[in-house]
Each structure stands twice: as structure tokens, then as C-alpha cells.
């Protein structure tokens, strides 16, 4: 007896618990089970010491502890159940149980209830009822625990038609709040859609006997998420479910995985299994509940009669395509369908489902997967057409594609898909994993099929444009090789294969050129024309560029980017039509330019104007689309103008998109030289500063009385940064043969207030002149291009250009 009491003490339990958690040989389900067993033994000892031989009292584990799924820092969910009537004794027993748990620093979720109270609370609170479904006896009166379990389970099954819709609503609210686990870079393993809470909800649905989740792979997926949570608790020492970026490498190492990407991929695959099982299960719940509500009315209408032959009425089946029918709101296989003899059937069924906007029945997909035969290479024309139809069906394509993928049919049709499946994209601009982004791009491209002459090539290129991200090196280069192979395999002729490969190779060309290069430079337009090759390919590339950006996320596309890309496409189309791009000449100053320049000379100070830019609305009745703000500045020629202007704009929270600088010839009889700066800017928070305030600060910046560096340093210190996230170092390169009129220096760095100011000051210090700058940001990354010349107004010699780039990079890294 003395030995048992010693083991039940907090010291003995704590030491045993620590030994168990430090055992590297035991992890995963065995460790969770052992931890639950050790905790059971300790709590049972506490219970026995506090209520020796007690009747009418029991200690019950509920929730995750009830399932014996204790992670290292999990809460202990406990219910002290009693019907003895001696509330004072029960209260003392509760204290003897709860205080040792708190003394060890363990989180505790506890309650003390009679069976009637527990049943009533479960009826009022769905979360309590879900926890009690996993009730497990630890100590005391076993009959009391068993009776409660039986009662709660019976109540759950009787109330399922009312409570399951409420459970579904809870799941949907949580998904809207927490997002989808399979796409998040810092996911909540428990709360996000496809996480552990959803897996528990599926157990509750199964317990209702109303519907059941597809079992294949579900337990393994749930176990994998629990393993990751265990490793997260061990590496952080905290009770957390959020897999933060700074902890992912440690968690991966704890699990024996290569790196954080391998970890996220495992998490995403598990979440996808759980999310898909949830979709199928909730659809079945809805179908069962609808049939139950219809059946009594149907019986009343028929006067209690039965269908012909005395059996159940046969469900209606509407033909959709060969071997494919609609039944009860789902797409199923016709009775005569033979998946083992019809290799096109999976694509035909998928295309029919997407076109009808209906889900593919789970059993139909499994039947096709079990009997599927590989398509011959090249594919027959029907298979290619069905794939195009599926890709061109818009939003319904996503769910249908996921149903095929869940059973391995996509990997069988497109073996290269496995390399991008569930692959994370560590870029805040991207909303999706690589594979989902490809499908999302096809969905977006389906809206543009009326504006291109070859919609089939557009859709296939959309599906394949990032397929190279599963391989090392430049994904566009690797993707071109894969796309060429896939396009030939699915049956396109040699010319079409070349077009698809070109689209994949250059899918970033238009947006990168439009936002980082001077479109007035003939070399820019000619280089794009040479890469694209034909007007038809240019048309397709324009549509693919927009679809890709829209499918990436809201930060990747805007009216401003769209207008720049459209301008570039127009110029390239002219070259492809045989028109030579004009050499850039200094355009004659406008009346406004001359007015600003003369005022700058007269006052000896900068003069500026701000003017909002818009484009016509997409709809005739809509408002004009904002493109940004044109900022014109005339300054008496002097050193330091670029960094001064850039610094003042940064202080006023204005983002620079493009900047052009040139000397302006003044009318005869006017002495002096004026710099004209024509900039496009955007307000970070939607409101523009007053021009007078900008001008006043610019005057002070140019005469040295405004400490821009100090002001920006203060702002930089307060700039929100995520703990533990280290940005890659800046990189500065010289773009080869980008222009005949200037040297193009490209800067890639972490975006921050005053970045353009620092770059401008460094270029001034290097003694080069900036003709124009093209600034762009994607998420936290700035990608800026500067057209610079030497003192003679010519491009820099190669060695000097490399030297300037190297010094600029060193300055930015300091």
C-alpha cells in the first residue's frame, strides 16, 4: 500500500512522465497511449487515497484524454461523476484530484456533475456532448460511468437529425475563421479545416449511425497530425497547436524529416485526407436527412402504398454522358459502365460532373480507380477533349479534381503531378500549394477562353505552368521540358506542343518585363517579341499571365499591373506585325512640364503636382479603376535629388511604382538647368498627403535640414516583424543586354520603408545617373530595376557595372 501511495505522488508521476517523454525509442501512438496509461494510474491513486472504497463516485476522462491521445502538453479533460448525495465529500475529493494536477503545471479542464447534470449540460452544449462521446472510466464506480456513456450515446443517436446540422455549422464557422490546414504556412493543427477537430467531428458522425466517413487513410492522417503536435509540444515546451514558421525545422528534425518543407507536405497530405473525408461525409449526412424529411410526406401522398413490386422506389437516374448518370444530386456510374474496359471513363465522368456542377460519388470514383487502365500514349482524341472540358468548367473543377486526386487517378493520368502535390510555397503572396495553384489558374483561365483563339492550349498551359516547381533549378526551364512531354503524351501535334512549352517557359515574362523594364526602350520590346515568336502565342501568354496572377493571390495583380502588361502586349504585337519599335527620343515637354520647370527656376526650389490616374471601368455603370497617382516634380539641377525625393515619399507612406528622371531644356533666355521627375506612386493607406506638405519636406531634405535617415530608422524600428523570420540577404545583379541605352541594375531585397531612399543614395555615391526606376513588390519582397548611365550619358562598361552592383549589395546588406 505504501508503494502505491508513493507512485501516486506528484514527484513519482512527474519523474516517470519525464522519462517517458525523453524516450526516443517510443513515440507516436505508443507514447500517447503510454502517457495516458501513466496518467490514469496516477489519477486512480489520487482517487483511491481521497475516496477509498467510494461508491456512487467515478473519475472519467473525456475528450482527447478520453481517447487516450495525450500529447506532451495536452490538457487533462476530467469529469468527476457522482450520485451519492454527499456534496461536501465530493468537493473534498475534487480538491484532492485537481490541486496535484495544477501543482505540476498541467492544464486541466474539469467539471463535477451528477449523471442528470451531465446529460442536461450535454443536451444544451454541443461541445460538452462531443467530449462525453469519448468518455472513458479511470477510477471509482464503473457502473456509474458505463450508465452515463450508454445514456449519452443513446441521446446522441436519437438527437442526430437536429445536432448534426449544428455540428456541421460549427465546423464551417471554424473553417472560415482558421482557414484550410492544407494551404496555410503557419497552420493550427487542431482548429483549421482538415485538422484534428474535424477528425473528431467525423468520429461523432460515425457514432450517430446516420452516416460514416470514408475510412481509408483517415486514421493514418489523424495519427500523422497527432505525431506533429507531439513533436511541436516537445520542441517548444508549450501547449500549442500552431505550427509557427520558426519552429518548423526543429519539429521536422524531431520527426526525422529532411526539412520544414517535408514536414509541411506531410501535414498538408494528412489535412487533405481529413478535409475530403469531411466533404464526403457531410454530403452523405445531408442526403440522409433530406430523404428522411421527404419520406413521410411521400408516404402521405401515396396513402401508405409502396412502389411497384413491393420494394423501395427506385432512385431517378438521369444520363449525363456515356457510362455516367446523375442520381440523388451526385454523379455515379451507369449500371453498364465498365471501368476496366473504358480507360477514358474517369475523365468523361469528371468532365460531366464539372459541367453539371455536381460532386462525383465516392464509390463511383473508387470503382473507377480500382478498375482503371492507363491511357495509351498519345491519348485518344476523346480523352484530350474530356480533359479540356474538365479544365474549362470553372469553379466546379476544383472539387471534381480533388475527388479524382484523393483516389490516385490524377497521378495515374499525369505522373508528373506527384512532384507538385501538396508542395508548399514559402511566399506570402501565394495562397495555395503548387498543385492547388495550378488548378486555380485553370479555373481563372476558363473565364478567358472566349478571348483567345486556342482555349485548349491556354487551359493546358494553365494546368502545367508551374509543374517544374517539383524539380531543382529554375522552375520555368524545368517546366518547359515536362510540359513538352505531357502535351505530346496527351495528344497535341508538334506545333501545339511547342506553343504549350513556350507558354510554360515564359509564363512570367510579361509581368516581370512590364513591371521591371522600361517599355519605351526598343530592346525591351524586341526581347519579348523574340521569346514569344508569334501573335497567337502572345495572345495566349497575355491570358495566362492574368490567370496566373489572379490565382496567386490579391497581392499579385492590380489595375496597375494589368495596365502595364496590356501596354507591353500592345507594343510587342506591333513588332510581331512587322513594325519596328521607335527609338526613344526625349519627348517634347508639355505645357505643364514647362510651367513647373519655369517656376522651379524662378523660386530656386522644387515644385510639384499630384494627379490621380484611372482607367475606364470594366462595367459601363462602374467607377473608374484606380491606377495610382502621377507625381511630377521639377527641381533645380543638383546632387542628391533621387534619394531626397524617395526619402520624403517613404516618410509620407507613398509607394513608388516607377520613376523617370531627365534634364529639361528650358526656353531661350532662361538660365539654369532643371531636373524633371515623373513618378507613379500609390498611397499605402489610401489617402494622399497634401502637395504643399510634400514640397515643404522636399525643400528641407534638399537643404539638409530634414534628417530622413533618422526619421526612417525610427519607423523601421517600429515596423512589424514576425519573430524568428529571417529574410534572405539582398541580391543586386546586372541584367545582361537589357537595354542599348543604359545599364540595368536589378535589386531584390526585403521590402521596408526607405529602401528606395537607401538605393538612391548608394547610386548617387557611386557616381552614376539614374534615368528611370521601376519598383515592384510581391508580398514582403521588393524587386526594383534601375536604368543607370555614366557621366557621358552612356551605359556603364561591364566591369564598372559589376562594381556598382557589388557596392550597392554591400550597402544594402550592412
Automatic annotation (TrEMBL):
Entries under SUPFAM superfamilies matching the protein: ACT-like, HD-domain/PDEase-like, Nucleotidyltransferase, Nucleotidyltransferase substrate binding subunit/domain
Keyword Hydrolase recorded: yes
Domain HD: residue ranges: 434-557
Region (Uridylyltransferase): 1-319
Domain of life: Bacteria
GO molecular function: [protein-PII] uridylyltransferase activity
SMART domains: HDc
Domain ACT residues, every copy: 630-713, 744-814
EC numbers on record: 2.7.7.59, 3.1.4.-
Catalytic activities: [protein-PII]-L-tyrosine + UTP = [protein-PII]-uridylyl-L-tyrosine + diphosphate; [protein-PII]-uridylyl-L-tyrosine + H2O = [protein-PII]-L-tyrosine + UMP + H(+)
Regulation: Uridylyltransferase (UTase) activity is inhibited by glutamine, while glutamine activates uridylyl-removing (UR) activity.
Cofactor(s) the protein needs: Mg(2+)
CDD domains, per the entry: ACT_ACR-UUR-like_2, HDc
Pfam family, one: ACT
Keywords for this protein: Hydrolase, Magnesium, Multifunctional enzyme, Nucleotidyltransferase, Repeat, Transferase
InterPro entries per UniProt: ACT-like_dom_sf (IPR045865), ACT_dom (IPR002912), HD/PDEase_dom (IPR003607), HD_domain (IPR006674), NT_sf (IPR043519), PII_UdlTrfase/GS_AdlTrfase (IPR013546), UTase/UR (IPR010043)
Role: Modifies, by uridylylation and deuridylylation, the PII regulatory proteins (GlnB and homologs), in response to the nitrogen status of the cell that GlnD senses through the glutamine level. Under low glutamine levels, catalyzes the conversion of the PII proteins and UTP to PII-UMP and PPi, while under higher glutamine levels, GlnD hydrolyzes PII-UMP to PII and UMP (deuridylylation). Thus, controls uridylylation state and activity of the PII proteins, and plays an important role in the regulation of nitrogen metabolism.
NCBIfam families assigned: PRK03381.1 (NF002895), UTase_glnD (TIGR01693)
Family: Belongs to the GlnD family.
PANTHER family found in the cross-reference section: BIFUNCTIONAL URIDYLYLTRANSFERASE/URIDYLYL-REMOVING ENZYME, BIFUNCTIONAL URIDYLYLTRANSFERASE_URIDYLYL-REMOVING ENZYME
Notes on the domains: Has four distinct domains: an N-terminal nucleotidyltransferase (NT) domain responsible for UTase activity, a central HD domain that encodes UR activity, and two C-terminal ACT domains that seem to have a role in glutamine sensing.
Protein's UniProt name: Bifunctional uridylyltransferase/uridylyl-removing enzyme
Amino acid at each position: 500500500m505504501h508503494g502505491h501511495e508513493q507512485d501516486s505522488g506528484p514527484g513519482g508521476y512527474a519523474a516517470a512522465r519525464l522519462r517517458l517523454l525523453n524516450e526516443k525509442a517510443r513515440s507516436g501512438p505508443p507514447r500517447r497511449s503510454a502517457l495516458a496509461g501513466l496518467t490514469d494510474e496516477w489519477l486512480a491513486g489520487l482517487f483511491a487515497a481521497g475516496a477509498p472504497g467510494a461508491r456512487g463516485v467515478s473519475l472519467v476522462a473525456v475528450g482527447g484524454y478520453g481517447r487516450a491521445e495525450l500529447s506532451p502538453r495536452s490538457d487533462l479533460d476530467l469529469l468527476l461523476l457522482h450520485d451519492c448525495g454527499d456534496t461536501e465529500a465530493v468537493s473534498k475529493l475534487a480538491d484532492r484530484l485537481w490541486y496535484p494536477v495544477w501543482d505540476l503545471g498541467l492544464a486541466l479542464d474539469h467539471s463535477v456533475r451528477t449523471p442528470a447534470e451531465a446529460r442536461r449540460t450535454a443536451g444544451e452544449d454541443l461541445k460538452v456532448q462531443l467530449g462525453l462521446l469519448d468518455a472513458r472510466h479511470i477510477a471509482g464506480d464503473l457502473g456509474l460511468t458505463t450508465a452515463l456513456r450508454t445514456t449519452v450515446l443513446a441521446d446522441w443517436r436519437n438527437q442526430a437529425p437536429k445536432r448534426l446540422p449544428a455540428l456541421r455549422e460549427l465546423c464551417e464557422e471554424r473553417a472560415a475563421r482558421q482557414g484550410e490546414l492544407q494551404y496555410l504556412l503557419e497552420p493550427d493543427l487542431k482548429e483549421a479545416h482538415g485538422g484534428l477537430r474535424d477528425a473528431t467531428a467525423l468520429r461523432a458522425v460515425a457514432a450517430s449511425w446516420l452516416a460514416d466517413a470514408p475510412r481509408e487513410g483517415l486514421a493514418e492522417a489523424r495519427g500523422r497530425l497527432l505525431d506533429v503536435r507531439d513533436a511541436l509540444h516537445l520542441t517548444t515546451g508549450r501547449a500549442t497547436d500552431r505550427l509557427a514558421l520558426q519552429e518548423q525545422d526543429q519539429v521536422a528534425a524531431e520527426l526525422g524529416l529532411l526539412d520544414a518543407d517535408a514536414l509541411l507536405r506531410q501535414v498538408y497530405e494528412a489535412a487533405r485526407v481529413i478535409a475530403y473525408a469531411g466533404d464526403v461525409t457531410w454530403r452523405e449526412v445531408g442526403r440522409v436527412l433530406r430523404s428522411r424529411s421527404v419520406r413521410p410526406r411521400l408516404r402521405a401522398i401515396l396513402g401508405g402504398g409502396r412502389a411497384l413490386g413491393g420494394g423501395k422506389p427506385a432512385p431517378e437516374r438521369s444520363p449525363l454522358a456515356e457510362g455516367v448518370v446523375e442520381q440523388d444530386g451526385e454523379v455515379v456510374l451507369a449500371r453498364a459502365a465498365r471501368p476496366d474496359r473504358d480507360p477514358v471513363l474517369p475523365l468523361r465522368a469528371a468532365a460531366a460532373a464539372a459541367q453539371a456542377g455536381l460532386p462525383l460519388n465516392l464509390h463511383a470514383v473508387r470503382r473507377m480507380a480500382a478498375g482503371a487502365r492507363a491511357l495509351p500514349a498519345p491519348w485518344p482524341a476523346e480523352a484530350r477533349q474530356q480533359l479540356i472540358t474538365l479544365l474549362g468548367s470553372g469553379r466546379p473543377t476544383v472539387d471534381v479534381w480533388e475527388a479524382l486526386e484523393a483516389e490516385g487517378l490524377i497521378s495515374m493520368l499525369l505522373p508528373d503531378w506527384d512532384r507538385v502535390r501538396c508542395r508548399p510555397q514559402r511566399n506570402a503572396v501565394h495562397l495555395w500549394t503548387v498543385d492547388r495553384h495550378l488548378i486555380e489558374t485553370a479555373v481563372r483561365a476558363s473565364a478567358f477562353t472566349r478571348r483567345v483563339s486556342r482555349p485548349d492550349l491556354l487551359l493546358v498551359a494553365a494546368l502545367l505552368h508551374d509543374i517544374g516547381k517539383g524539380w531543382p533549378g529554375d522552375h520555368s526551364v524545368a517546366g518547359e521540358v515536362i510540359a513538352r512531354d505531357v502535351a505530346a503524351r496527351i495528344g497535341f501535334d508538334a506545333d501545339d506542343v511547342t506553343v504549350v512549352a513556350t507558354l510554360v517557359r515564359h509564363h512570367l515574362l510579361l509581368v516581370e518585363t512590364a513591371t521591371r523594364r522600361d517599355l519605351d526602350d526598343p530592346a525591351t520590346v524586341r526581347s519579348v517579341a523574340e521569346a514569344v515568336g508569334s501573335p497567337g502565342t502572345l495572345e495566349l501568354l497575355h491570358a495566362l499571365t492574368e490567370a496566373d496572377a489572379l490565382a496567386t493571390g490579391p497581392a499579385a495583380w492590380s489595375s496597375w499591373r494589368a495596365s502595364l502588361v496590356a501596354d507591353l502586349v500592345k507594343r510587342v504585337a506591333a513588332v510581331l506585325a512587322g513594325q519596328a519599335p521607335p527609338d526613344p527620343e526625349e519627348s517634347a515637354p508639355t505645357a505643364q512640364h514647362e510651367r513647373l520647370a519655369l517656376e522651379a527656376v524662378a523660386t530656386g526650389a522644387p515644385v510639384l503636382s499630384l494627379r490621380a490616374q484611372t482607367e475606364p471601368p470594366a462595367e459601363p455603370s462602374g467607377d473608374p479603376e484606380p491606377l495610382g497617382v502621377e507625381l511630377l516634380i521639377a527641381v533645380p539641377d543638383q546632387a542628391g535629388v533621387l534619394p531626397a525625393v524617395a526619402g520624403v515619399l517613404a516618410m509620407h507612406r507613398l509607394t513608388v511604382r516607377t520613376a523617370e528622371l531627365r534634364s529639361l531644356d528650358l526656353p531661350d533666355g532662361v538660365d539654369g538647368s532643371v531636373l524633371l521627375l515623373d513618378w507613379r506612386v500609390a498611397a499605402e493607406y489610401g489617402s494622399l498627403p497634401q502637395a504643399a506638405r510634400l514640397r515643404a519636406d522636399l525643400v528641407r531634405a534638399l537643404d539638409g535640414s530634414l534628417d530622413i535617415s533618422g526619421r526612417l530608422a525610427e519607423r523601421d524600428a517600429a515596423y512589424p516583424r514576425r519573430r524568428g523570420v529571417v529574410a534572405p540577404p539582398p541580391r543586386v545583379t546586372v541584367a545582361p543586354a537589357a537595354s542599348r541605352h543604359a545599364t540595368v541594375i536589378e535589386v531584390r531585397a526585403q521590402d521596408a520603408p526607405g529602401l528606395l531612399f537607401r538605393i538612391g543614395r548608394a547610386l548617387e555615391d557611386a557616381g552614376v545617373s539614374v534615368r528611370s526606376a521601376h519598383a515592384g513588390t510581391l508580398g514582403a519582397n521588393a524587386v526594383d530595376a534601375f536604368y543607370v548611365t555614366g557621366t557621358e550619358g552612356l551605359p556603364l562598361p561591364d566591369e564598372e557595372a559589376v562594381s556598382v552592383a557589388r557596392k550597392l549589395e554591400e550597402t544594402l546588406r550592412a
